[in-house]
Design goal:
Layout: H1 12-23, E1 52-53, E2 68-74, E3 80-85, E4 90-92, E5 95-105, E6 115-116, E7 119-120, E8 124-131, E9 136-141, E10 145-146, E11 153-158, E12 167-169, E13 171-172, E14 180-192, E15 195-206, E16 212-218, E17 222-230, E18 236-243
Antiparallel strand pairs: 1-8, 2-3, 2-18, 3-5, 4-5, 5-8, 6-7, 8-9, 9-10, 9-11, 11-13, 12-14, 14-15, 15-16, 16-17, 17-18
């Protein structure tokens, strides 16, 4: 489903205040161990197969075989997008991965293949895998790039435990820095075909060409709404139907 931590700049005033407060202390607390995205090497050029599990059951991005999502697209090209999880796993760079196919339709299609606003009427297949901690990684796109080849590196598609402010690369693609993402909120709401949903993970994704899109992810359902914040068109993606298979 189509797929770096930003440097935190501390103001000089805050730094001075911290130094002043710390000057009168005889001892300092032990630093907290890294957690969440801080524990990960993102992006990574060579994932260790031992760090990954079979299947993907991340609650925010459940990619169980046979599952599908249909979205209505308003603005931009219009039409719709269908996302389907393949039945059988594939091996990418030694890692057991899940193949996810995305294909679009447009309100006024032209003969043959049509590519509009990043969508294509030709099926596109992306590869994902989940690590032992529950993080979902984007390993490649068929015919375009694959982790470990020509400098391509895998990035995060969804964290196991998203935290507001977490930032990361979704991929490092040859010839491009690839998209970056930041967790914007954990209390997103939306009125969807599944009802009024709350407590959703909200993620802003930015591409090198200046496009910024905000996605809303519901527990157990995945992406249910996406809107364009900045970019060429004010495109909105709305979930219109879904079939999510049970995880065996």
């Amino acid at each position: 489903m189509t797929h770096h931590a930003p440097d935190v700049v501390r103001r000089a005033v805050a730094a001075v205040a911290l130094l002043t407060l710390g000057a009168g202390c005889g001892t300092a607390s032990d630093p907290s161990p890294p957690s969440g995205v801080d524990e990960l090497t993102v992006p990574t050029p060579s994932p260790d197969p031992a760090d990954y599990v079979d299947g993907i059951d991340n609650p925010w991005l459940p990619l169980t075989p046979g599952s599908s999502w249909a979205y209505a697209v308003t603005g931009g090209a219009g039409g719709g997008v269908v996302v389907t999880v393949a039945d059988d796993p594939v091996t990418i760079a030694g890692v057991s991965a899940i193949a996810v196919q995305t294909v679009a339709t447009f309100t006024a299609p032209e003969p043959g293949e049509v590519n509009v606003e990043g969508w294509s009427t030709t099926p596109r297949t992306d590869y994902y895998a989940q690590d032992t901690r529950g993080n979902v990684w984007w390993l490649g796109r068929e015919g375009r790039w694959q982790v470990g080849e020509d400098g391509a590196e895998a990035g995060i598609a969804m964290l196991a435990t998203p935290r507001v402010g977490d930032g990361y690369r979704e991929a490092l693609v040859p010839g491009s820095e690839g998209p970056t993402a930041e967790v914007a909120a954990l209390d997103g709401t939306a009125d969807t075909v599944l009802g009024e949903l709350e407590d959703m993970v909200v993620i802003d994704v930015s591409t090198p060409d200046g496009l910024v899109q905000r996605g809303f992810y519901a527990r157990g359902a995945g992406l249910v709404h996406r809107e364009t914040l900045t970019g060429a068109s004010e495109e909105t993606l709305e979930l219109s139907a879904t079939t999510i298979e049970a995880d065996d």
